[in-house]
Amino acid sequence: MTTTSDLDALGARGDSSTAFELRLSDTPVPTAEREAEIAAPKFGTVFTDHMARISWSASTGWHDRRVVKYGPLLLDPASAVLHYGQEIFEGLKAYRHADGSIWTFRPQANAARFAASARRLALPELSEEDFLGAITALVRTDVAWVPSGGETSLYLRPFMYASEKYLGVRTTLEAEFLVIASPVGSYFGAVVAPVSIWVSQHYHRVGAGGTGAAKCGGNYAASLLPQQEAHERGCEQVCFLDAATNTQIEELGGMNVVVVHADGRVSTPALTGSILEGVTRSSIIALLTDAGHEVDERTILLTELQDGIADGSIAEVFACGTAAVITPIGRLAGEDFNLTVADGAAGAVTTRIRGELTDIQYGRATDRHAWLRRLV
Ligand SMILES: *Cc1c(COP(=O)(O)O)cnc(C)c1O
């Protein structure tokens, strides 16, 4: 169990969460109800009692760091975000270890990506200190909401939007940053079943010079119609090709793609500026490299994928991201093809690397890359 001195030690390491004023909810969810909700959480449907919040204005900068009761926002109908989509977000998890301590995984990488996304969307940058402080303050306040057992966690969703009441088109003079938290189980359900992928040959997520490398709501808005098309074609997820040539694999709507060749080499699309740099992607590259796999970040043509799956030189394909961790891709389909990857089941490398990553996240394996950061 966590002792007071452990927490003091955490605090002594420069704890920016103490900058947050706690305004506790007067109507927290009753204990029995909360325990029922975190026992079998469905992804992103239940939220904790509080949210962390920081406001920004061009004249005063970031101010009013607080943890407040979770609830609806007051938004002027003329708020810029509602008209021009100036919004960014992040996604990371807090994991409860067997000894009761609670940890996040590489949150500095999320903080850096959030700052980069803010730059691209012309929003104010938030410091790593405030990003980590907000997460820490919220998780400590709602610590009872962090589930335990199985592949459960507290999903953390930091986001920022342009709140200025102004219909002219220019960058905002006011913004809000919030973190909300949701207890979650496994993203796609109880078992890690392979998913089927529809390769969209008509729609693209982003183009060169666009916002593909930023984690912004607009990219997701653009992916929803193709995602619906994937469903209509009997597939669970959509995979996008590059907008310039319509030949190169980019990524899914919210996950990166990794290809495992039969000879053990691994390839993943290079970061061309139109792909989101996943924290899971980069962690997997490190773990695969540690395990002796040669990992290339390069152009992967759809035709290479089709030919390799057909002739067996591609043994496994998987998707990766924080929410679903690693999800095997069992089938790849498009306008004129429908291919089963190997026997359609999760491959050996996919399964092993998923186990290695989750063992680190849940404290069951040595954190040799120092990826974990203790919150409680
Ligand atoms: C968030 C996201 C990912 C995965 O990133 P992680 O840091 O691994 O969660 C991949 N692609 C897109 C488009 C994303 O928004």
From TrEMBL:
EC number, UniProt record: 2.6.1.42
Pfam families found in the cross-reference section: Aminotran_4
The UniProt record lists the keyword Transferase: yes
Catalytic activity field: L-leucine + 2-oxoglutarate = 4-methyl-2-oxopentanoate + L-glutamate; L-valine + 2-oxoglutarate = 3-methyl-2-oxobutanoate + L-glutamate; L-isoleucine + 2-oxoglutarate = (S)-3-methyl-2-oxopentanoate + L-glutamate
Keywords, in A-Z order: Amino-acid biosynthesis, Aminotransferase, Branched-chain amino acid biosynthesis, Pyridoxal phosphate, Transferase
Family: Belongs to the class-IV pyridoxal-phosphate-dependent aminotransferase family.
Protein name: branched-chain-amino-acid transaminase
Organism: Pengzhenrongella frigida
